[in-house]
Amino acid sequence: MVMVGFSISMLDGKALYRDILNATEEFDAKFCIGQGGHGSVYKVNLPSLGNIAVKRLHSSFQNTHPKSFINEVRALTGIKHRNIVNLYGYCSKAQHSFLVYEYVERGSLSSILSNEVESKKLDWLKRVNIIKGVAFALSYMHRDCSSPIVHRDISSSNVLLDSEYEARIADFGIAKILKPDSSNCTAFAGTYGYVAPELAYTMKVTQMCDVYSFGVLSLEIVKGKHLGDYISVLANSSTIDPEQLSDLLDERLPYPDDRVKDVLVFIINLACSCLLETPKSRPTMPFISHKLSSMDARLPIHQKTPI
């Protein structure tokens, strides 16, 4: 199969394909900026586009998961949201299958949270803004797309941060486009520790799978690391008391002042409601986005910190 498609107007797909191969010296390892189970990501600088990210799928993964590539293309085609990574184009040939994305400068949220120096640059207000950005993107996917899209793999590894620490949801390889006349059942997939518990006994995918993952991710952003087994404790908590709060905050940051603390408590309680065992008891992403937007009046004006 030969499939070359680029959505940026005025660009020649075949010429861009050649430019990418030349710029990466046929995907030499020195241009690689990240690796995963599905493929490798390369930073490429082209005169026509500037910096771009090229995700090249491993041939072994392509052979075992032939639908993943086209799935990602279908999910991202036509999507335009400031908190979702931009897909510029794609190519599928016998030698190479790759996706071309905007380059997101700071990389994954997980890599920043796990770095002692970089994590301290993520102050409380930046973290609140990241949580809001992910919520806005998921709300858009669930409600505002022509057919609802469930990401199915929301995690700190699949959230990228730009130069201003704005969130971009990435990696739509296992996303599910919901169809009204379908059971929307599928094989188990996702990242351990973020997957909704109902997927252990049902293969039916709903928006509530993403809601659960969003709750886990929000708590991770506030704490600075995944909460592990403590997630199940919080899933059964109606509200967080002041004694619990200290245990849920990232100790690498200064303790928040009262106004920011109130916002963090609000977010933690909202995140805990996303963890409820019964999917229908969880809030929807549009509801969560509305609640997070209503916090703006409570937040102090964000001061940009020197980098």
From TrEMBL:
<dbReference type="InterPro" id="IPR017441">
    <property type="entry name" value="Protein_kinase_ATP_BS"/>
</dbReference>
<dbReference type="GO" id="GO:0016020">
    <property type="term" value="C:membrane"/>
</dbReference>
<keyword id="KW-0677">Repeat</keyword>
<keyword id="KW-0418">Kinase</keyword>
<keyword id="KW-0433">Leucine-rich repeat</keyword>
<dbReference type="Pfam" id="PF00069">
    <property type="entry name" value="Pkinase"/>
</dbReference>
<keyword id="KW-0812">Transmembrane</keyword>
<dbReference type="GO" id="GO:0004674">
    <property type="term" value="F:protein serine/threonine kinase activity"/>
</dbReference>
<keyword id="KW-1133">Transmembrane helix</keyword>
<keyword id="KW-0597">Phosphoprotein</keyword>
<keyword id="KW-0547">Nucleotide-binding</keyword>
<dbReference type="InterPro" id="IPR008266">
    <property type="entry name" value="Tyr_kinase_AS"/>
</dbReference>
<keyword id="KW-0325">Glycoprotein</keyword>
<feature type="binding site">
    <location>
        <position position="55"/>
    </location>
    <ligand>
        <name>ATP</name>
    </ligand>
</feature>
<keyword id="KW-0732">Signal</keyword>
<dbReference type="InterPro" id="IPR000719">
    <property type="entry name" value="Prot_kinase_dom"/>
</dbReference>
<keyword id="KW-0675">Receptor</keyword>
<dbReference type="InterPro" id="IPR051420">
    <property type="entry name" value="Ser_Thr_Kinases_DiverseReg"/>
</dbReference>
<protein>
    <recommendedName>
        <fullName>non-specific serine/threonine protein kinase</fullName>
        <ecNumber>2.7.11.1</ecNumber>
    </recommendedName>
</protein>
<dbReference type="GO" id="GO:0005524">
    <property type="term" value="F:ATP binding"/>
</dbReference>
<keyword id="KW-0808">Transferase</keyword>
<dbReference type="InterPro" id="IPR011009">
    <property type="entry name" value="Kinase-like_dom_sf"/>
</dbReference>
<feature type="domain" description="Protein kinase">
    <location>
        <begin position="27"/>
        <end position="293"/>
    </location>
</feature>
<keyword id="KW-0472">Membrane</keyword>
<keyword id="KW-0723">Serine/threonine-protein kinase</keyword>
<keyword id="KW-0067">ATP-binding</keyword>
